[in-house]
Amino acid sequence: MSSVSVEKPSFLRAQIGGLPRPFWALWSGTLVNRLGTMVLPFTGVYLTQSRGLSVAAAGLVMAVYGAGSLLSQPLAGVLADRIGRRATLSGGMLATGAAMLALGYSASLPAILASMFVLGLVIDVYRPASNALVADLVSPAERPRAYGLLFWAINLGYAVGMTAGGWLAGVGFVWLFWIDALSCVAFAALVWRAVPETRPTVERATGGFGVVLRDRVMLGFTLVALGNALVYSQTMTMLPVAMTEVVKLSSGEYGLAMALNGVLIVVAQPLVSAWLGRRDPARTLALGLAIMGAGFAMTAFVTSVLGLAATIAVWTAGEIITAGIPGAVVAALAPAELRGRYSGLFGFAWSLSAVLAPLMGGALLEIGPRTLWFTIGGIGVLSAVGMLLLGPAIRRR
Questions:
Q1: What's the whole-model pTM score?
Q2: 126 lies in which domain range?
Q3: Whole-number Å distance between alpha carbons of 99 and 120
Q4: Rounded to an integer, what distance in angstroms lies between the CA atom of residue 44 and that of residue 184?
Q5: What is the pLDDT of residues 37-94, one digit of tens each?
Q6: DSSP code per residue over 302-355
Q7: How many Cα atoms are found within 13 Å in the side-chain-facing hemisphere of 152?
Q8: For residue 160, what is the domain's CATH number?
């Protein structure tokens, strides 16, 4: 009996112990915000069904959103370093809530376009500030675990938010906008009240983004991140198209298989984050990227829902392995006073992939499914090789 009572607290401490209270305030705010994330997954449906836009007009609206998001991350990185992490995060969340409500009540195409551009500009402003806060608050040895726990909160909240959003969309789209906006306000208030400002008081570096762009190791890592993002973005772009239009799975079968991704992350990721955090980050990230690439390459042979579930299990394992490492690498590469800018450049890679992934994936799928999935798998493997090549430089930092 005594051995059992000792082991359980030890395991819990290994997973959640040793992290400062302000981190848990940030974690809680992230979870609340993701629980309320309901608008974006249903934007296309909202624009075409509720606002009566054509598919072409809806595509234009989403392109404008993408343009805003490309500007978002570098701008947010500068703000996080100049005015502070807490002010940037809270201000970005309040602006996102306002943009959500503006979009929800916009009836004309010009108003919708303006609202979507602003939403793209502000919705992810919190990311560089959040990443910099974790780097400021958490010791280097614990950062992979901390970033992994944030990744877990995002996935848990998103899974619940998607389920609730699907039900609420049937009741009325306006509910989605209000709940999303209120979750943004709650995140902003929690961070403002419970998280101290951590920005260094004196900036030792000058030159703004020029300093970041002269860091060859960070540029190399950003290319690796772009490769990772191009692979993962297919889950939201070409994977649903290929599975329903080419493999002929029903929407229900596809949704059931994709639910496995969230279940595996929620169950497995907290169990392995502490162990993964003790491994060499470059080699571990390379392994995860290679497994993700292999999982997507296997999609070329999918002919049934069970086959799709098997490939999802493989690339989800890679996603779990990589979960907390990129943020920890960026934190290690960045000077303390430039953590916002470094995180902004990293986030820009993901924003760019949101534009490039559907264009690239659509063109490759027209050639053939195997061309698409082997190319995506190859990008994953090349990203893994790139990470291994960067490993010695990252370890020296």
A1: 0.86
A2: 20-194
A3: 9
A4: 21
A5: 778 777 877 888 888 888 788 878 888 888 899 999 999 999 999 999 999 999 999 9
A6: --SHHHHHHHHHHHHHHHHHHTTHHHHHHHHHS-GGGHHHHHHHHHHHHHHHHH
A7: 25
A8: 1.20.1250.20
